[in-house]
Amino acid sequence: MNKKLISVILVLANVLSLASCSFFDRPVTETADDDNDEPSVAQEKVFNTIDKVAKSLAECDYESLIDRCTKEPLEIKEAMPVVEMTDPDDIDAEKPDNKLVIGNMIASTISYEIDEESFEKKALGSKCSVDVIFSYKDYHKVLDKRQKFLGTADFNTLLFEEDSRVDLTFTLEFQKYHSRYLLVNADDLAKLYEYEDTELEYYRSLFDLVENIYLTGDKYDPEKECYTDTDTLEIVLEISEEGQDYVWQYAYRVANETTPKWTDLYNSGWITETGPKEIHVTYTHDEILETGYYCILFYNTYDGTVYGMEFDVFNTQSEASASEETSADISEETTEEG
User: Fold this and answer.
1) Who's near 156: CB < 8 A, 6+ residues apart?
2) Which has the higher per-residue pLDDT, 182 or 20?
3) Nearest CA-CA partner of 187 in 211, 175, 170
4) Any residues with CB less than 8 A from the CB of 166 and at least 6 apart, and which?
5) What is the dihedral of CA 275, 271, 281, 296, to 10 degrees?
C-alpha cells in the first residue's frame, strides 16, 4: 500500500514538473508557412520586440518581459530591482530598502541602440540574431560627487543630470513563435542590473549640513545668552561646504512661550536659496518685546525635522514699570491700614 501511494505521488510530481517547464518553454512552429517572413519583415518584428524588452527592463516590469521570452529568465528575476508600490498614507507600510530603490533608479535609465548591419536571419528555420548595445547612466560619476546623500531623491536628481553612460553589447537571439519573435537568451541581460557600491550613506536631515547656529544683534548678550530691551531678533545658520551644493527650501517661525501653547509672532512662508553659505534671518517687532521665552524655528521641504534655538528676552523698562506699580500698591495698602 505504501509503495503504491509513493508511486502515485512521484507520478504527480513529474506531471507538475513537466507542466511547469512547458508553460515558459513555448513550442516553436517550424512549418514552411511559418518561415516565409522576408528578412525585412522579420527584422521589423525583432526590432519591435527589442523595443518592448528594453522598456520592460527599464521599468523593471518582469511580467511584461517574460511575455517576450521563450522561457522564464530566472537570472533576471533574481537581479531585477523591483520596488513594490505602497500606499503613502499607510503609516504601517514597510518602506523599500534604499539599495533596492537606488538600483531601480539606475535601471530606469536603461536605453538601447541596435546594430542593424549585424541582423541575421537563418536561411533555414525561424531564428534570428542581432547585436544590441544597452546602456545605463554611469552612477559611479554620481557617487564621486557626494560622501553622503540627502535621501534617495538627492541621488536621483544627480543621476538625471549625469550624461556619462555605461555600454554593454549583447548578441540577442530570437526564435519565431507563431507570428512573433521571442527572445531566447534573455538571462544574458541580467548584467544590466549588476550595480556595485550602491549601499549609500545618508544624512539624517538637511539640517545636518549646518555647521554652526547662533543668535546675534546689537541687543544680544552672548555671555548671558539673552536679549535685553530689543525689538529685533537675529539668527544665523552657517552652511557646510557640502550643504552649499543644495537648493535650500525652508521656512521659519518666530514665537514666544505662552499658556496653553506658544504664540506665533511671525511665519515666513517658504523661501528658496541656491547654495547659500549662510542663512541670516532678522525679525523686527513693532515695539520692544516683552520679557519672556522665545524661539526661532526652521523647517525644510526635504524632511520633517525642526531646527532652531530657544532663548530669553528681558524688557527692563516694562519690569521697572511693573516694579513701580507694585511698590505704589504696597504703599497704598500700608497707608490704608495706618
Assistant:
1) 105
2) 182
3) 170
4) 135, 136, 137, 138
5) -120
